[in-house]
User: Fold this.
Amino acid sequence: MGIALTDDHRELGEVARSFLTAQKARWAARELLDAAEEHRPPFWAELAELGWLGLHVDEQYGGSGYGLPELVVVIDELGRAVAPGPFVPTAVVSAVLSAAGTDEQKTRLLPGLIDGSVTAAVGFGGDLTLSGGKVSGDAGVVLGAGLADLLLLTAGDDVVLVDRTADGVSVEVPGNLDRTRRSGRVTLADVAVGDNVLTEARSAAVAYARTLFAAEAAGGASDCVDTAVEYAKVREQFGRTIATFQAVKHHCANMAVAAESTVAAVWDAARAAGESAEDGQSQFELIAAAAATLAFPAYVRNAELNIQVHGGIGFTWEHDAHLHLRRALTVQALLGGDGPPTEVFDLTALGISRPNSLDLPADADALREQIRSDAVELAKLDEKAQVDELIATGYIMPHWPKPWGRAAGAIEQLLVEEEFAAAGVKRPDYGITGWVILTLIQHGTPSQIERFVEKALRKDEIWCQLFSEPSAGSDAAAVKTRATRVDGGWKITGQKVWTSGAHYCKRGLATVRTDFDVPKHQGITMVILDMEAPGVEVRPLRQITGGSEFNEVF
Assistant:
């Protein structure tokens, strides 16, 4: 898992990971746990020399001229390592300056942020007021204030950049939950900010902070997955590794889903930051809020589950699991909470949306034109004629093998989805029937395919799958339903349970045991059942909703 998608980005991520490993970034974080004062990490100068602090900054100001996608790849790796130091808040400030600062502000402030001589912190709380070029009030808790030279704070809709050493600035750094990057309480008393005001830049600043800290959270959440999985594969209990236990598998699977969702949202937020559509800034704010909504709780949950999977060792000071939990809880407290999801709701209510799009190869254009033309013609047909044509052309299920599908790859499938939606053509949704029929196409005999597939595609016959039994749930190979050969076919005896839709299905695909004298993962056969045949009894199971969507089948 990782944010890097292209070859160049993957190479950048690998270089960053190798650098942090060689510099013992995780150990540097551990050394700060008991340190009385925070200090810059020992590899700070080398990190700055690599140019990573300015990946996203224009070359005319000393940067590399790339963008946020490259920056978040590096931050993702920093998050994996729980790297100490002010990299992320410093990068946030330089990103905000690049986007919302004047040329004079950029020329004056960006070089120091890029070469690492100036470090920064960010804070969006408190009740600061800006009047007559001076700022006063309580800035609340400022993330990274322990080491910062420059403080990015907000006064109303404006952003102010405050020199920590200026008269009237008070920074108190109490004991911190995250001792590897310490925050502080900041108050200002008539602090002159001069030309260090970014007018109406608060929304942009929040979006950049959410995106970059979410990238760090994505890396941390992914590392928690990797660490938990690796431990589960070697830790033994009851004579077997705990990775074989269903509860542990589910924890690890849920962690992986959370991390991957976070990675996807961060990647899109980084892309949105560089787009120049008419509502590009609003789109960026929307997806940045979405990234924060996903990333910060996911990081907290994955850090907690990582400890859970590790058991007792995960609760020790010597183990690194608590480093992730400290980092995750701190960022969630300062940048998460109700703010991001509320903003997602508010922006969506205003009509702001984020279209899904990918950069496709040039040869996709001709394919798109053909699919668009086909979609336009399909839209002219009535429902029955549409289904006939969809089946005949393979558009009914494009990824299926020919002749029932088009053997479409990922690009063609995407183009079909987009162009059919634009033309208003809706392909049938087959649900479980589709799963079963694809299996039949792949493994059935020619006569079975001829007999069953087209009827299913026309929804003349709906299918269910009969796998689970009272003693065979996730352990699907524990089936006991017996099939014995008799004159004219097979006799099936047994019980299936949790069978969705069995009460309205014509056919079912069932797992049955045809040989009881071999190991349980052998001797299992798939059979097609007529759900209306004599001897088949379907008993609906009432759910908590009062309805019955799944059943017992005897």
Summary: The mean pLDDT is 94. The longest helix spans residues 202-234. The chain is about 45% helix and 15% strand.
